[in-house]
Amino acid sequence: MVPFVFLASSIFFPFNDNWLHIIDNVLYDYFFNSLALALGVGFCTFIMGTVTAWLTSIFDFPFRKLISWLLLMPLAMPAYIIAITYVGIIDSFGFLPDIRNLPGAILMISFVLYPYVYILARGAFLEQSKELYENSQILGASQLQILFRVSMPMARPSIILGVTLAAMEALADFGTVEFLGVPTFTTGIFRTWFGMNDTVTATQMASLLLTIVFVFVFIEQYSRKKVRYAENIKTQSKLNYKIISNKNKFIVITICLLPLTFGFIIPFLQLIYWSFFLSNEAWDSEFFQIVKNTIFLAFCSAFIILIISVLVTYIKRLSPNSITNKFMQIITLGYAIPGPVVAIAVLIPFATFDNYINQFLISKFNFSVGLIFSGTFFILIFAYCIRFLTVSSRTIKSGLDSISLATDDAAKTLGANTQTILKKIHFPMLKTSLLTGFLIVFIDIMKELPLTSILRPFNFNTLSVKAFELASDEKIVDASNAAIMIVLAGIIPVIFITKNILGKRNKV
Amino acid sequence: MNKKLIISDLSLAYGDNNNKNKILSNINFDLNESEIGCILGPSGCGKTSLLRAIAGFEDIISGSILKDGICISNNLENTSVQNRKMGMVFQDYALFPNMDVKSNIGFGLQNKTKKEKNDRVNYLLELVNLDKCKNKFPHELSGGEQQRVALIRALAASPEILLLDEPFSNIDADIKESLVSDVRDLLKELSITSVIVTHDQNEAFNFADKIAIMNEGNIEQVGNAYDIYHKPVNKFVADFVGLGIFLPILKKNDGTFETPLGVLELEKLDSEMRKLENLEMLLRPDDVIHNDESKTKAVVIEKQFRGAEFLYKLLYNEKYPLLCYAPSHHDHKIGEPIGIELDIEHYVIFEKS
After folding, report:
1. How far is C-alpha B215 from the chain's CA centre?
2. Which of A325, A339, A470, B66: disulfide with A450, CB 3.0–4.6 Å?
3. How far apart are CA B302 and CA B297, in angstroms?
């Protein structure tokens, strides 16, 4: 809570010369670029996501099942890594257009974020009832009319949700825009903070960005409510996939393969190709130390976040109206807050606190403890908690919601106490959600860039930081092994989650 | 005989202290050993809350619940759900989706040996003809099978009282009737005291020995099915249970009472009633008998074919609607006048509201 009160209070700090300089010279750029990035990514992901979702949920074509889950693969690819590879590719083929500009950044980010829209829109399309579809046909609607007049409006809450998530992620992006040299709010905060060493102005910019983010949060929460409403309608039977001519099959497959090829296949093959050029030194003990660091950090943080999420979700279940619960709702907004903003909101209050304690001890006991929190894992993990608590608590909550309260009551009438209920009913039923939540956070932390690079303890390197540093120094080839590790790790939860979703679909 | 379950002056409220929302007030209800009681009422009347209070899920604010003469609930003390020795069948069965049928049934038998547990589970499964489903999971069972599993799961630990919350509401109409009587027979065979909650009067009539009619948190009437149907104590019960219409009664100066269909027999009216002015009489469809010979005629304005019989809606004297059952070979056209006779055992008369 403290970090956000701090951010909010920053507007009352006196504005200094840097602030005036920023307003005069760059604020417009930051504002325009950030907004254009969010809207551009929203638009591109909308097109890529809905089109692929519609095609894979209506038509029958060869490899439909395989393609429908391969379309999720770009989720495994962090946007800054895809940007790094495309810059490398473009540099080696002179004739391609440069992507080190705003449209390039929009394209790069959209290629890896369209699965958000795809997954939600597809779910909504698949849940629409056969009766509804057949009824539209009887009333004389063509395939496209059904799409625009029935399917899309019904799926609208889900699509808006997906698009807003993608837009927020774009707004929060740091690595891609930094690498491609597009000045946005996130890079601006970073530059003001470390380039000009002006924390006050950086904080003020952070709170400005936060205000913009909350507009998107509002849209997102609003559409989430609508999604819940739409899901209440139970469907009786599933639609049969429509059979189409061979020519059309070819067109459908080609369209579906486009985002997949650009968002995953090309960059991944390029990374593998580069890794063959690596000297043996790239695989030295330092590299393995970094791998170990990354796994250690991601594992511990994900585990801590998982435990907190379990507590949060249980408080919510047991007393839905308590103050703690309201408080937790605010805390879980953290996913929307860009990394540099979280970093600034966490680091500065802690640094102030550290200094205060240190000063106090020196003046009273003439004894210095140095800085207690700053530059420790504690502060880094604390920041991860703010950023990723939402992700894991949402997953666990949806698992817990599927256990009806009557189930608990039934167990009680059969003589089971709370412990037995947890052990015999909740834990076995929540296993998948717990594992999913853990994996998603684990991978998100592996990929995470700005928080880690700002808050990590001195000399503690992770794969994402290393890959980004090397790439920024124009050593793109040297970054390939770290990038491949991140992508490979990212594939695991994608496979795991789709398997689970598909598994559940088949059971019901 | 000792009462198995006594509920006296029970009140229940939700919400915090400033904003209490009273759900149940002054509920009185009791059951003998192995009697089947039913709480019947429209949705939202508080019947499920009463059942949950008996189970121990809700704390009551006044009154008490006694089991075998021992208090299990009052405003101070509450025996925990786990220690009440009651079984409960939930509306959507609440089977544990992560366990197969035999583990579901065995769940309440934790302090039994493995063999005892197995024997009990097998015995119960045979009792309801589900031996084949032993290793299936809840989602692989039909609605009726799930319901039976929920029932024997609740019975497994030999509870002293069985509570059933709308147990037949998700069952298809065609098997519902036979299932209701099967379950009743089973409970009678095991002679277990039970309380069922339902909004379906046919279910209540077929299942229960004793019915309590509930409305807006109050019990309006307690009695057997016959009394509830033929001797409702107020207009709500008369309206809610069964079909019927109300005929206006005119009090004459000479002290006689007249309905559009004739004068009432004074000896069938109690003295309290005779003092009142504005009265009306309940006429059930079975109080009006169709007889082609009868001189009293009423015009058919609606008819419903119900298989064995017709339910006719008639208009008498151009302004008084009546309901009448007639055997289904008496097929009359709409608009046709048909002969009717009254056959009333006892009058059900209320003051006009």
Report:
1. 12
2. A339
3. 15
Contacts of B94 in chain A (CB under 8 A): 404, 406-407, 409-410
Q: Map residue B275 onto helix, strand or coil.
A: helix
Q: What gap in Å lies between CA A291 and CA A486, rounded to an integer? A: 10
Chain A positions touching B58 (Cβ under 8 A) are: none
Amino acid at B77: E
Q: How many domains does chain A have?
A: 1
Question: How far A392 CA lies from chain B's nearest CA (Å)?
Answer: 22
Please state the length of chain A: 508
Give contacts of A401 with chain B, Cβ < 8 Å. none
Residues of A with CB under 8 A from a CB of B: 404, 406-407, 409-417, 420, 424-425, 428-429, 507-508
Comparing C-alpha atoms, which of A456, A405, A453, A445 is closest to residue A426? A405
Q: Are A77 and A491 in contact (CB under 8 A)?
A: no
- Residue in A412, A413, A434 to test binding to B, most B beta-carbons within 10 Å: A413
Whether the CA torsion A114, A104, A335, A155 is positive or negative: it is: negative
pTM of the model: 0.77
> Do residues A400 and A457 make contact, with C-beta atoms less than 8 angstroms apart?
no
The ipTM estimated for the assembled molecules is 0.78
Q: In whole angstroms, what is the distance from residue A126 CA to residue A64 CA?
A: 14
Q: Are A373 and A32 in contact (CB under 8 A)?
A: no
Chain B hits for A419, Cβ within 8 Å: none
DSSP of B213-247, one letter per residue? EEETTEEEEEE-HHHHHHS-SSHHHHHHSS--EEE
SS3 B26: strand
| Contacts with B97 from chain A: Cβ below 8 Å | 429
Question: β-strand B193-198 against B161-165: which pairing, if any?
Answer: parallel
Q: Which of B83, B88, B120, B155 to mutate to test the interface with A (most CBs of A within 10 A)?
A: B88
| CA atoms of B318 and A25, how far apart (whole Å) | 90
d(CA A252, CA A55): 7
The label of the residue with tokens 């080839």 reads A477
Q: Tokens in use for A164?
A: 């807003």
Distances (CA, A) of B106 to A172, B131, B145, B227: 52, 14, 17, 41
> What does the DSSP 8-state code read for residue A424?
I
Residues A387 and A335 sit within 8 Å (Cβ to Cβ): yes
CATH assignment at residue A454: 1.10.3720.10
Polymer length in residues for chain B: 353
Beta strands B257-259 and B297-305, pairing class:
unpaired
What is the distance between the alpha carbons of residues B200 and B42, in angstroms, rounded to a whole number? 9
In A, which residues are within 8 Å of B16 by CB distance? Answer: none
> Which residues does B contribute to its contact with A (CB < 8 Å)?
55, 57, 81-82, 84, 86-88, 90-92, 94-98, 107-108, 110, 139, 153-154, 156-157, 163
Tally A–B CB contacts below 8 A: 59
Give the domain range for residue A123. 2-505
> Over its length of 353 residues, how does chain B's per-residue pLDDT go in tens digits?
578 999 999 999 887 666 678 889 999 999 999 999 999 999 889 999 999 999 998 888 899 999 998 999 988 888 888 888 999 999 888 899 888 999 999 998 888 899 999 999 999 999 888 989 999 999 889 888 999 999 999 999 899 999 999 999 888 888 888 889 999 999 999 999 999 999 999 999 999 999 999 999 999 999 999 999 999 999 999 999 989 899 888 888 887 888 888 888 777 777 777 777 788 889 999 889 898 888 889 999 999 998 889 999 999 888 889 999 999 888 999 999 999 988 888 888 888 87
Report percent pLDDT > 70 for chain A: 86
* Nearest-Cα residue of chain A relative to residue B80: A412
Backbone φ and ψ for A171, nearest 5 degrees, come out as: -65, -35
